[in-house]
Write a structure and sequence with these properties.
single chain, 64% helix, 0% strand, globular
Length: 188
């Protein structure tokens, strides 16, 4: 497969039609989905709560000071939930998680675009972004997808650091957050 010259980090995002199309699609998805995710009570009304979502929420509420059971989950998601609970925005967690998923897909495209033309980079990103399993995981209250997003963002920062060494600090910070989100992050 023929490749274009790699794009540079200084290339303006507005000059990449694939990025603009992807951003428009992802923002439209987020705008369509966000109102459906905002419920009165995340613990009782979230339509995608499954598995151990309630345990993650309980850990966050315990950190926020609620008299609930604590089960020593990895701290990043419970800390984020606790911060949202303290601010009175606990129900916004699904929208925050969707925002992270959206940013990660845009970063994936930019990472792929460094090496490939618009078409293959966009197609690969749409395959990942269109994954039914990943989209369902992005709707649940768990640490799996946030950890995966942080790992990919750390990888994108390492690649960017080849030309701008300051990105190594961001890569380390993102990898550390991934490790705080899930034990798989320790691999990074």
């Amino acid at each position: 497969m023929r490749r274009d010259a790699p794009s540079t980090p200084r290339r303006r995002l507005g000059s990449d039609p694939g990025f603009l199309l992807l951003a428009a699609l992802l923002l439209a998805r987020l705008a369509w989905l966000a109102p459906r995710l905002l419920v009165d009570d995340l613990n009782l009304d979230h339509p995608f709560a499954a598995g151990d979502a309630w345990d993650w929420i309980a850990n966050g509420l315990w950190i926020a000071g609620a008299p609930v059971r604590w089960s020593a989950r990895p701290p990043l998601v419970p800390l984020a939930l606790a911060g949202l609970a303290k601010a009175g925005w606990l129900e916004a967690w699904p929208v925050v998680a969707q925002g992270l998923w959206t940013v990660t897909l845009l970063a994936l495209y930019r990472l792929l675009r460094r090496r490939w033309r618009v078409g293959p980079a966009l197609a690969a990103t749409l395959v990942v972004g269109g994954s039914h399993t990943l989209n369902l995981l992005s709707l649940e209250v768990m640490a799996d997808l946030p950890a995966a997003c942080l790992i990919l963002l750390a990888l994108a920062a390492v690649v960017a650091a080849a030309e701008r060494p300051a990105w190594y600090a961001a890569a380390g910070g993102l990898a550390a957050l991934a490790a705080l989100a899930s034990p798989i992050g320790l691999v990074v």
